Task: inverse folding
């Protein structure tokens, strides 16, 4: 049988999401392609420091063992192939088993998500993330200024999700923004037994659920729903997950409270939310990524 990615959890990630390339990126954004390449080559023997998504990737790769490769991480980057040398050198220096990469020298990398069958795309380029979401892939723009994850749970991949417009569709959020909180609560109470349609990150949650079920006792996945919903609107969210036959380990119904301090206590390796205000609060405490979907992101 030939090589295949079927059945694996596939994460496509840009170099800036995995490593701290902010100094180098300033040259890249100036359009000075050659100067950027020269700087990366000058630093070829200098391992890049971990970036915001490093902890998430390292832990996901720990689900692999000699018998089973359950997770595949692929570099998917606007870098040129020459600069990719330093990316893979840094991967090796940090003992990450990442063997595949696509480097597009400034062109759209998201097109390669389809042949990769990606379950998640993480990038620091917001336009690439929006394009990936439009064609149906779970994707988030990494807040490169985020606080990095601590290593207090080395045997758990800890991931936190917002609900509406992330795990779920933004159906209810549209009611909230157009008609206000009382109408939103009434709408959700009346439809409590009717599952919400899936949002852009439902496929990732499903893939994580499979990974947890099929994975190794040495690593586990712990998930949290962290939402601005409160009672009585909490019920529809929980019933939706039950309908999907997916459990989350923790659920926080915060009724509009800032999410950052709650996330600080959960200590996720990554948090996904559709609203930039929540990302701003979260990034002070944890790695965070913006999901540009739904009515909050026209």
Result:
């Amino acid at each position: 049988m030939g090589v295949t990615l079927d059945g694996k959890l596939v994460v496509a990630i840009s170099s800036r999401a995995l490593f701290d390339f902010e100094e180098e990126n300033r040259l890249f954004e100036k359009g000075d392609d050659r100067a950027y390449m020269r700087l990366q080559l000058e630093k070829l023997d200098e391992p890049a420091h971990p970036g915001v998504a490093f902890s998430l990737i390292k832990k996901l790769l720990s689900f692999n063992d000699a018998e089973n490769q359950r997770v595949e991480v692929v570099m998917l980057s606007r870098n040129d192939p020459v600069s990719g040398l330093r990316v893979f050198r840094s991967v090796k220096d940090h003992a990450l088993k990442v063997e595949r990469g696509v480097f597009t020298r400034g062109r759209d990398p998201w097109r390669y998500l389809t042949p990769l069958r990606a379950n998640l795309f993480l990038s620091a380029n917001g336009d690439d993330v929006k394009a990936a979401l439009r064609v149906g892939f779970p994707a988030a723009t990494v807040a490169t200024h985020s606080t990095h994850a601590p290593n207090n749970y080395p045997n758990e991949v800890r991931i936190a999700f917002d609900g509406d417009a992330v795990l779920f569709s933004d159906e209810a959020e549209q009611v909230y923004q157009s008609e206000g909180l009382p109408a939103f609560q009434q709408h959700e109470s009346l439809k409590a037994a009717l599952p919400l349609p899936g949002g852009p990150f439902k496929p990732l949650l499903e893939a994580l659920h499979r990974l947890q079920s099929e994975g190794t006792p040495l690593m586990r996945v712990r998930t949290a729903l962290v939402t601005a919903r409160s009672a009585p609107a909490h019920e529809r969210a929980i019933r939706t997950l039950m309908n999907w036959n997916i459990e989350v380990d923790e659920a926080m119904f915060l009724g509009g409270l800032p999410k950052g301090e709650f996330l600080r206590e959960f200590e996720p390796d990554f948090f996904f939310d559709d609203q930039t205000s929540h990302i701003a609060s979260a990034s002070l405490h944890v790695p965070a990524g913006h999901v540009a979907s739904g009515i909050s992101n026209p």
